[in-house]
Design brief:
The chain is built from four helices and twelve strands; from the N terminus they run αβββββαβααββββββ. The termini are far apart. The protein is of the alpha+beta class. The longest helix has 8 residues. The strands form three sheets. It has a seven-stranded antiparallel sheet. The chain is globular and about 50 Å long. A hairpin with a 2-residue loop joins strand 9 and strand 10. The structure holds flavin mononucleotide. Flavin mononucleotide binds next to strand 3 and strand 5.
Length: 165
Amino acid sequence: MEEISIGIAQKLTSPNPFGLVSSTKPDGSTNLMAISWWTYASNHPATILICLSNKGYTGECIRTSKEFGLSIVSESLAAAAFQCGTCSGRDRDKALEFGIELVPGKSINAKLVADSRITFECQVEAHYPASDHTIFVGTVQHIFADQNKKALYAVNGYGALKAVG
Ligand SMILES: Cc1cc2nc3c(=O)[nH]c(=O)nc-3n(C[C@H](O)[C@H](O)[C@H](O)COP(=O)(O)O)c2cc1C
């Protein structure tokens, strides 16, 4: 064994399940952000955690709106979804620019990605500082699925997206 950095460890422990986080911007439109640091945290009530860099715009939006969507997008959106992880929604509309169709949620204002294997609608229960990231705890309000679609996984850390299954 050799001692390694956290970045190399993240590459060696990938793939991670991948999704797009939806949040509502002050003008009411939906921002999309690529995420691979999310996990289930509780069953009753159903709870998921998302871990967001403090440099990104999504955390700011979610602190205000206290809700978010998580879309486990279909493999056909791999290229467009990856792009959502390469730029900020502060001054652009990623869904429009990258041709990602959005649909209204049942219980949140942020829209979800239409072409998804699963969508989660969450209310923010709490958020906790984690050094250069913030952990948002989301109580799941609704989950929808289309089991015929394949999910994407982030491989080589954040390096690329691949379908599995
Ligand atoms: C495959 C992939 C996975 C990513 N996972 C995360 C993540 O889990 N947490 C995070 O803070 N940023 C992650 N990012 C980076 C953000 O998506 C990126 O910083 C994005 O530009 C933030 O957008 P925003 O400023 O509109 O919030 C990921 C990027 C890619 C390409």
